[in-house]
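Lab channel / #folding
Pinned by the channel admin:
"Please post every new chain as: sequence first, then the structure tokens as a reply. Keep commentary short and put observations after the output so the thread stays searchable."

First post following the new format, from NK:
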Amino acid sequence: MKKKLFIILLILSVSISFVYSGDYKTELTKYVAIGDSLTAGYQSGGLVSEFQKYSYPNILSTQLGITDFQQPLISSPGIPAVMQLQSLSPVSFYTPSGTGIPLNLNLQRPYDNLAIPGATLYSSLYPPKTSSNPFYQIILRGLGNVITQASLLKPKLITFWLGNNEILGGVLSGKVIEGVTVFPVGTYSILLDQAMAALSATKAKIVIMNIPKTTDIPFVNTLSIYITNPTTGELIKDTNGNPITYIGPNGPMTNGWYITLKAIPYITAGYGIPAALGGNGQPLPDTVTLSPSEIEKLDKMVEDYNKVIKNTAKKYNAILMDVNSLFSIITKDGYKIGGVTFTTNFITGGLFSYDGVHLNSLGYAIIANKIIEKINETLEYNIPLYSYKDLFEKGNPTIAPIKTTNFRVLKNN
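Reply from TO:
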């Protein structure tokens, strides 16, 4: 009798284990994404359906087997119109005329991807009644704030990635002023607890993502402080053989300063370049540079935000997705797919779109796969990973050109 009972219990345990490890299709039947432009699938300065299909939430929903995942789709050329590459040498872009329009504005329920480009955690909880940002109206449509709409959908899985814009404001403006261009971490902590408490009430499984370091994005780390010869690309040196740096708000730049991509028109016009080298001798404005002290403040803010996110994830039993570490690793070592190493380098790296802030389709696909890996690891599911070959077979304008020999390899991975 004991032997029969042992066999029955063994069979039951194996059966239960088998069902659980592959039960995502019955347990994760409704997925909702909450976030900002990075979650919306924003690329190259705009939101457009061509790229929205490669948002990491849309990729994740497809891998989950969800057939009705609704996003606020925007027609070409996008809102705003997305940037187009005009020339690689020198690098230049153009923006098409016109603007896109919402394609499914009359959806009779909240969108499953509730990410709002430009949103902060505060504005997701307390959306502005009037705003120059059209996405609040396009996405929320008067149906309540993001958290309320997400709860109405009765999700089984939620991904949550808000906090980027709270810090990015200081980067884009070139001025790090707490309470003005960057959002105080203490207030963010209170709001995050409020949001997570409401979302936890849905009983959904929650994946919360932290904030990457600001110097890991091409918008910040592309331009060197050293002046080069535009013809040869060689460093220009003084009579003592020392490389000459651009003129910043406080004089010649030193190590630790950063010049953002917003400085390109100024440099083209001669700002930051000594008159002896053909420039106008005027300093680059403070709005397109970041000083060592500002970088230190930004790094500290990212660290503090991520501590809050980690503690909040633990409090509400959410799965923590460490995007910060992922970005740091990719920035340092690149990311290999099919023997090809992709990097965060502007234009040539193949992971970021033309605005230098937002990922491209491949970058978002990597995020989706890392989320899947984290869910599988934590919950013992076997959600299949997205195959990158779709991107390379169909082509994607923001993925850097690839050698023909490597392209064949990539198509099979």
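NK: The chain has 17 helices and twelve strands.
TO: also worth noting, Residues 5-20, 401-413 have pLDDT under 50 and may be disordered.
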